[in-house]
Amino acid sequence: MKITTPTYNLAFAEDVLKGLTDKKKHLSSRYFYDDEGSHIFQQIMKMPEYYPTNCEFEILSEQSENILEQLNFKEKFNIVEFGSGDGTKTKQLLQAFLNKNADFTYVPIDISEEAILILEENIRASIPEIQMNSKVGDYFDILEDISKEETPNLFLFLGGNIGNYKKDDALDLLQKFASGMKKGDKLLMGIDLQKSPRTIQKAYDDPHGITKMFNMNLLQRINRELEADIDLDQFDFYCHYNPENGKVNSYLFSLIKQKFYSKILDTTFTFQKDEMIWTELSKKYSLAEIEELASTLDFKVVENFLDKKGYFADSLWEK
Ligand code: AVJ
């Protein structure tokens, strides 16, 4: 007997099937980031309208000494990073900490071995003296191991990814982080803040159409990986910021009544004209909401480090 492993991602296949047959259609933004999508996200981060990356870069470049002081660690510590990306922003913090003679080991965690290898090379090239102990695997498995050690930890959850989680999911995720933390451990989390609705709208509804491509890549993935025949020209992108609740919601929608077929799923999907597929939540927080979130989870907010425009916060929490 010949055993063939599926060439497609099973979770993706199941979620597409569920998401596109539900009464209100949806596809998760976690599927944005295949190789193609990660590449488009790099382009998003280079757009002048997409302010979060530059804001967080500024915070970590200019305020890392203050962050180090606020950690108040008296001994050697770990800097454990969830979802490090290419490390460009983290490097600013690591370099500033080393300049102040802080004694730490950098522990980046990623599910992708390739991502970790690229990150290691990138970090070592610019900071050869760094002590690094990279981990490939599931965040929470690794967190469990780390939590058994005595060493104090600074956890990094940068980039504003928390904004992609609905309230209950954000609480669940942060609760899981908390359960892997000892008393005195710190969490530095990037959080995008509420601001002029025009500034936020422009960052997502960008004039270059790059964010549209980023969303459309979900349909491309369905075509590529689930052997489907979606006509991309018959879909468009829409997003909307609601300043009353701080939520950017993004959608793909069907320009006509249409259907497509996926060979892998052996399913035909139907769309009404103007039917929406919800793709992403990007929640913007107020400082009061950050305080409330922390206190719900029994964290203390040590300090919010904001960029000069006050657009973005790296919020330092203590367990
Ligand atoms: C990577 C989740 C922080 O929500 O701003 C960028 C992803 N989506 N443009 C965000 C994204 C559309 C981004 N995060």
UniProtKB/TrEMBL annotation:
GO molecular function annotations of the record: methyltransferase activity
Domain Histidine-specific methyltransferase SAM-dependent: start-end pairs: 12-318
The keyword Transferase appears for this protein: yes
InterPro entries named among the record's database cross-references: EgtD_Methyltrsf_superfamily (IPR051128), MeTrfase_dom (IPR019257), MeTrfase_EgtD-like (IPR017804), SAM-dependent_MTases_sf (IPR029063)
Any Pfam family the entry gives: Methyltransf_33
Record bears the keyword Transferase: yes
GO term, biological process aspect, one: methylation
Keywords annotated in UniProt: Methyltransferase, Transferase
Protein name: Histidine-specific methyltransferase SAM-dependent domain-containing protein
Organism expressing this protein natively: Flavobacterium macacae
